[in-house]
Known about the structure:
- The chain has 286 residues and is an alpha+beta fold.
- The chain folds into 2 domains: 136 residues, Thiol Ester Dehydrase, Chain A; 141 residues, Aminopeptidase, CATH 3.40.630.30.
- 28% of the residues lie in helices and 38% in strands.
- The protein has a 7-stranded mixed β-sheet, with helices on both faces. Strands 1-3-4-5-2 form a 5-stranded antiparallel β-sheet.
- β11 and β12 form a beta hairpin.
Amino acid sequence: MTQRRDFRFLDRLRVRWAEVDLQKIVFNGHYLMYFDTAVAGYWRALALPYHDTMAALAGDLYVRKATLEYHASAHYDDQLEVGVRTGRIGNSSMVIECAVFRGEQLLVSGDLVYVFADPVTQTSRPVPQDLREVLQGFEAGKPMVEVRVGSWDELGREAQPIRAKVFVEEQHIPADLEWDAADAVAVHAVAYNRFGVPLATGRLLEHVPGVAKIGRMAVVASMRGSRIGRTVLDALMQTAKARGEREVLLHAQMSAAPFYTRAGFVTRGEVFEEAGIAHVEMLRPL
């Protein structure tokens, strides 16, 4: 019997009222939606922005077959976890195995059979070797992200587009506020996936002797919530510690404050505005 511990990736959800049928249990068809939603999270765990990745591979994945087996029912307001893993990878097809759990109890299991195909003609093509290796590497427990630390001259070409997209385009921060002289003297970090695509960045400066300041933390939209930002934050904190800093501070946007709290930062002072966005100062000893 399939068990929760068989899955490296688990996506959490809570059953909504609209998903319960007249029998007061989750309508059977909704489990396919649960599977599809969890598969999207699986791609984030692989550090692969789906559409960009498929475009780079000159193909796409199409569902050929979906099977489900029902073992028990989920009810309104249940907290569930959906496990996703790669099963068999053939020449042009691959099997994604899914299972829904309530605690350790298996509720539904199933397979999604995908075919890799040309997106124009929709004729099958071999699963690219690079994609095959990423899927197999994830299931073997290998890291999906590499963080490089260096100067602006070394990493600015990859960091700049991420920051421009997040801060200037998404958050409408004026470009003249985003780019400053501190980039030239800061230590920068950039996270790359296994295809070498940059996905997140941040920088480290000396605030005062013994205290470092982290800033310009940015993650591409499709990868948020995948812990890639945490890998960048950890790399910057490790760099600060190696330099002998005793403490690190940052100005967190209020929407990002819970992320930093989970990383061990604590709030100091009142909320303030910076670049038209509410921030709070947060600190953590090293």
